[in-house]
Design goal:
With 536 residues, the protein is of the alpha/beta class. 32% of the residues lie in helices and 11% in strands.
Length: 536
C-alpha cells in the first residue's frame, strides 16, 4: 500500500521497498550517483548520493522508504558531504579529464578531438569542432602564439604536435569552399533570437570575438568602428603573414553569423554612449588603449590610458556599459585579447538574460601533472612514430595527407569519456577540488586489449558496476575484486586479461563505467596496439 514521505518539504507518494533515490528522482531531484545502475541494484560504495534522514547521512540508493520519513537532500551540509565524497575519489584518481593543450587554450578549443578528426579524414567534423569553439580560425592559425603547443606532452618526447598549423589547415580547407556551389564555409548554428541587443565599439580582435560569442547566444549584435575596415590591429600585420583575403573571409563569416557592421563611425563624433544606450540593451567598449585627451568623449572612468572595469564582471561604472581587451589591460597576444572579448561576451550574456554578470567557469579537470618516461611510453603506443611534419610549401600549409600524418602524432592525453563522464559532471556541479586530499599519485597505466577495450586502472573507483554486469551475464570468467584494503583492484580471475573477462558485455560495461576507466580505442590509429613507442 502506498504512503507518503517528505523530501525537502515536498510530500512524495512512494511504494513499499522503493529507494529514497528513486523517490527523489520521481520529483526531479538530481541526486548524484556513481556506483548505481538500476538493473544492478545499490552498491553503496561511492557515497556521493548521501541524504540526511533524522540527522544522519545515509546513501539514498540503498536506503528504503518508510512511513513518515523526512529526507533532506538539497542542504549545505548534504552538499558538503557529497563534495567531500567526490574529492576523496579524486585523491587516488590518475588521469586528466582535459588534455594539457585543451586546458591551455584561452578559447577552450577541444584540440584532441579536432586532431583525431583530421587523422581519420573527417575534415568536415574537424571544421565543425573548430568553428563551433572559436572565431577567426584562419587568423589564429597564423598568428596565435600557441600556448597549447607549449603544454603538449608529445614535446617531452620529441616535438609537440603542430596544433596551430592544424588549425590553419582546417580553416583553409573551410575557406576554400567559398566558391563551391555544393558547399560553403561552415557557419555554426545560433541559439534562438533573444530579442536583446548589444552594441560593440571597436572591431579589433577583442570586439570581433565578443560579437561572435554574443551572436551565438542569439543576441542581435551591431559592431561599430571608426575605420572603414574591420580588424583593428590585425590590419597592421604584414600581408605575407596574414593575407588580407584570410581576414576578409573571417569577417564575412561573422556577418553571415548575423553581426551587423557599421564602419567609419567614430564614437565621439557620429554616436555617443548616451545615444547608444537608448537603442541597445548593453554596450561593450573594445576601443584599445585610450589616447591622451580622448577619455572625455567615452564618458566612462579612465585610469591613465585604460578604462576602469570590474575584472570579474567587465562592467564599468556606467549602467549597461562593459569594457574589454586592451582598453582595460594591455594584451600582447592575439588569443588573449580574443579570450578577454569572450569573457566580456559571457558577462554580457548573463546580464542580458537577467542574471548577475560574471566570467564563465572553467571546465572541471583532474590533472595528472608531468609524466615519467615510462608513463609517456604508455601513451605513445597508440600514436604515430613519425617526427613533426613540416609542409612542403610553408605558405600553402599542410596538404590533406600531411595533416593526417601530423595529427596522428597526438597522444590522446584527454580522457575518452571527457564531456560524458559522470564523475567530471558532478565534480563541476558541486565545485569539487580534485587536489584537496591529493597525495603522491600512482603510476599511470593504460592496458590495451586485443579486442579494442582500454582499461586504465588509475581511473577505476571500484564502483562494482562492471563486476555485477559480468556476473549477471554469466561471463565465463567475468571481472572481480582482487586484493585487500588499499590494494583492492578490479581484474579478471586467474591473471587473465580484462578482455578475457568481457566476452559478452564489454560494450555495456564501457557504456556504464562512470569514470572512463573502461573505454574503446578509436579506430583512427596509424600504429598497431602493443607496438613499440617511437624513439625520442
Amino acid at each position: 500500500m502506498k504512503f507518503s514521505i517528505s523530501i525537502d518539504g515536498t510530500q512524495v507518494e512512494v511504494s513499499p521497498g522503493q529507494s529514497v533515490l528513486s523517490a527523489a528522482r520521481s520529483i526531479g531531484l538530481d541526486i548524484p550517483t556513481l556506483c548505481y545502475l538500476e538493473k544492478c541494484g545499490p552498491m553503496n560504495s561511492c557515497l556521493v548520493c548521501l541524504v540526511q534522514i533524522n540527522g544522519k547521512l545515509v546513501p539514498s540508493c540503498g536506503t528504503r522508504v518508510e512511513p513518515g520519513m523526512v529526507v533532506q537532500s538539497e542542504t549545505q551540509e548534504v552538499h558538503e558531504a557529497r563534495r567531500t565524497a567526490l574529492e576523496l575519489l579524486f585523491s587516488d584518481h590518475v588521469g586528466d579529464c582535459l588534455s594539457p593543450c585543451h586546458r591551455l587554450c584561452p578559447l577552450g578549443l577541444n584540440i584532441p578531438v579536432m586532431l583525431r578528426q583530421i587523422q581519420s579524414g573527417q575534415v568536415d567534423e574537424a571544421i565543425l569542432t573548430m568553428r563551433s569553439a572559436i572565431p577567426l580560425g584562419g587568423v589564429l592559425g597564423r598568428l596565435c602564439h600557441h600556448p597549447c603547443e607549449q603544454g603538449c606532452r608529445r614535446g617531452n618526447w620529441d616535438s609537440p604536435a603542430a596544433i596551430r598549423d592544424m588549425e590553419k589547415h582546417v580553416s583553409d580547407v573551410d575557406r576554400s569552399r567559398a566558391g563551391d556551389p555544393r558547399k560553403s564555409p561552415y557557419v555554426p548554428p545560433r541559439k534562438a533570437a533573444t530579442g536583446r541587443t548589444a552594441a560593440i565599439i571597436g572591431a579589433g580582435p577583442a570586439g570581433l570575438a565578443a560579437a561572435w560569442y554574443l551572436a551565438r547566444h542569439g543576441h542581435a549584435v551591431t559592431l561599430f568602428d571608426r575605420n572603414d575596415t574591420a580588424g583593428g590591429t590585425l590590419r597592421q600585420v604584414p600581408e605575407e603573414v596574414l593575407p588580407p583575403e584570410v581576414l576578409a573571409a573571417e569577417i564575412v563569416l561573422l556577418t553571415r553569423f548575423g553581426v551587423e557592421l557599421k564602419l567609419g563611425v567614430a564614437l565621439e563624433n557620429q554616436v555617443t554612449l548616451d545615444g547608444l544606450a537608448q537603442s541597445f540593451d548593453a554596450i561593450l567598449l573594445t576601443v584599445g588603449e585610450v589616447q591622451p585627451g580622448r577619455s572625455a568623449p567615452l564618458g566612462v572612468p579612465v585610469s591613465g590610458s585604460l578604462i576602469s572595469a570590474d575584472p570579474n564582471t567587465c562592467q564599468t561604472a556606467l549602467p549597461r556599459v562593459f569594457a574589454a581587451g586592451s582598453a582595460v589591460k594591455p594584451a600582447k597576444q592575439l588569443v588573449r585579447a580574443m579570450a578577454d572579448g569572450r569573457a566580456a561576451a559571457e558577462c554580457m550574456h548573463r546580464f542580458l538574460s537577467g542574471q548577475p554578470a560574471r566570467r564563465p567557469e572553467k571546465t572541471f579537470s583532474s590533472v595528472m601533472g608531468r609524466l615519467s618516461p615510462g608513463e609517456l611510453r604508455d601513451f605513445l603506443r597508440t600514436t604515430s612514430e613519425g617526427a613533426r611534419v613540416s609542409p612542403c610549401d610553408r605558405c600553402a600549409g599542410h596538404t590533406r595527407q600531411e595533416a593526417i600524418v601530423e595529427a596522428a602524432r597526438c597522444m590522446h592525453c584527454d580522457c575518452r569519456s571527457s564531456g560524458d563522464c559522470v564523475l567530471q559532471h558532478y565534480a563541476q556541479a558541486y565545485g569539487a577540488d580534485a587536489n584537496r586530499f591529493r597525495a603522491e599519485r600512482r603510476v599511470f597505466e593504460q592496458q590495451l586489449q586485443p579486442g579494442g577495450v582500454v582499461f586504465e586502472p588509475g581511473k577505476c573507483i571500484l564502483c562494482g558496476i562492471c563486476v555485477k554486469l559480468t556476473e549477471m551475464a554469466s561471463e565465463p570468467l567475468g571481472l572481480t575484486f582482487i586484493g585487500r584494503g588499499f590494494e583492492v583492484r578490479v581484474a579478471t580471475p586467474f591473471n587473465q586479461s580484462i578482455q578475457d573477462g568481457l566476452q559478452k558485455v564489454a560494450e555495456e560495461c564501457v557504456k556504464h563505467c562512470p569514470t572512463g576507466a573502461l573505454s574503446f580505442l578509436e579506430k583512427t590509429g596509424l600504429v598497431q596496439m602493443g607496438a613499440a613507442p617511437p624513439s625520442p
